[in-house]
Amino acid sequence: QVQLVESGGGLAQPGGSLRLSCAASGFAFSVWAMSWARQAPGKGLEWVSGIYSDGSDAFYSDSVKDRFTISRDNAKNTLYLQMNSLKPEDTAMYYCVKGTLSSQYWGQGTQVTVSS
Predict the structure, then answer these.
(1) Beta-carbon count within 10 A of 102 CB
(2) Cα 3 from chain centroid?
(3) Whole-number Å distance between alpha carbons of 83 and 70
(4) Along the 116 residues of the chain, how does pLDDT read in single tens digits?
(5) Rounded to the nearest 5 degrees, what angle is found at the Cα of 74, between the Cα atoms of 72 and 75?
(6) What is the rounded distance in angstroms from the CA atom of residue 72 to the CA atom of residue 7?
(7) Looking at the DSSP assignment, which residues form a beta bridge with residue 31?
(8) pLDDT recorded at residue 101
(9) Whose CA is closest to 37, among 88, 115, 112, 87?
(10) What are the DSSP E strand ranges found in the chain?
(11) Whole-number Cα distances in Å, 2 to 10, 28, 31, 98
């Protein structure tokens, strides 16, 4: 069955960095586009970033563009999100998604907290 397991979240200071990983299994990872989404406390789901199956192109929300970088290693069935210049408003649960946000396949999430 499809499994998406996120890791790498934690506490970071404003201006700091974190790298999230998502280990995928149970499907042909290399032929699927992948996405990251997040949900801040008391707020709705927000799409953060997406990447083509071959990694040839990536897309970002305006709120994270130029600070976050999505990437993937198809040999390792792993999706990444490098987060730099973190802000308190980046505090959220971050989810790895198979395909787009309409997908039924989401990971369990990893918590990112940005605070001094």
Answers:
(1) 6
(2) 15
(3) 9
(4) 999 999 999 999 999 999 999 999 999 999 999 999 999 999 999 999 999 999 999 999 999 999 999 999 999 999 999 999 999 999 999 999 999 888 889 999 999 999 99
(5) 125
(6) 14
(7) none
(8) 85
(9) 112
(10) 3-7, 10-12, 18-25, 34-39, 45-51, 58-60, 68-73, 78-83, 92-98, 110-114
(11) 25, 10, 14, 9
**Using CA atoms, how far apart are residues 18 and 75, in angstroms rounded to an integer?**
22
User: How is residue 59 written in tokens?
Assistant: 């897309």
pLDDT at 100: 87
Token pair recorded at residue 103: 């997908």
- What DSSP line would sit under 76-101, residue for residue? TTEEEEEE-S--GGG-EEEEEEESST
Single-letter amino acid, residue 78: T
